[in-house]
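User: What would this chain look like folded?
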Amino acid sequence: MPGGSAGAAAPGPWLVLQHAPHEGPGLLAELITGAGHDLAVVRLDEAGHLPPPPTAGAVVVMGGAMGVHDTDRYPWLGPERTWIAGAVEAGVPVLGICLGAQLLAAALGAEVTTGPAPEIGVGEVELTAEGRADPVLGGHGARLPAVHWHGDTFAIPAGAVRLATSDRYENQAFRYGRAVYGLQFHLEVDQAIAQAWRPELPPGVDLEEGRAEVEAAGRRVLGRFVEMAGRLTPR
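Assistant: Here's the prediction, encoded as structure tokens.
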């Protein structure tokens, strides 16, 4: 992983890879900048430019309605997946959320497929034994409140550890190495994101009941990722 050896060039800003107008970083933006890191959002849906992976301080790959394999309609998905693989290879901390987790899994050589049925709304995931012991996800019991909004799923990449599961989807989170995490679920949903999502959600889905608990969990979990990733990259 990146270290702070003498003479090493400081990395660039944290990069958020965004795929849709309503799928921004949410409370992650506050946590990242609050920890003293510069933040740059790359809008891949608007032909945003990706710098060489090693120049990023850390990477957050957001969600989106498209699927990993929808490269005919979204041709930037293929190069993005290759770029993510390069970031992992370069030792850059990476956090993938929903589509981002699927892209990360695919970048690590795992299969991404359509799930049994969509999983949408406020719910929870159950942490595995490894998840309960994990320095980012663990420390607050066996279950974690979360917002679900997905219909695809991923296999756990070779060499990664499964951290969370649910009744509908066996694979909800994984860790690869020390600082590469894939979360099928959303913890970044603050009030502004919830408002932006409202017109996009299926009829009858309301995020307000239970969303505050998800945000509180997100501040703990995502805050620990930001803290951990910050220790691995020089200022």
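The beta strands are 14-18, 39-43, 59-61, 94-97, 112-127, 143-154, 160-165, 173-176, 180-183. If you want, I can go into more detail on any region.
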